[in-house]
Amino acid sequence: MTSKHRDEGNGERIVSEGSRGRDDGGEMGKKLTVSTLQAREEEIERRKMEVKEKVELQLSRAEEEAKRLAQIWEELEVMGDPMGKEVGNVRKRIDTAKKELKSLGQICQKKLLDQSERWRMNKLEELSKHIALTN
Question: Structural domain tally of the chain?
């Protein structure tokens, strides 16, 4: 449907109401896309915080275990040297366990961060595709 409007100039201007509706629809689509992007970005941030909390929890557990192992080591030293060879073996196992805990903590943190980043990149790619399809 078209309507005629008197232009400031000498002529008449013909405006298509359908095209005006499409402009409004395009604007609404853009607003919807922006709000969708914001919602997804908030979801990404929420998941990122969850991953961060999990990593911090695992690291705090690893630190507690390391402290516990250090305490056990001190207790063994206090016991004296009646079982010198066994104490040496236990110390070696404690050292090995400490190294493993430290490396496991680092591996867990790296994996969780990598996973979070991959998830975020996938979501951003989906958003990009969605935007490309809506345009």
Answer: 1
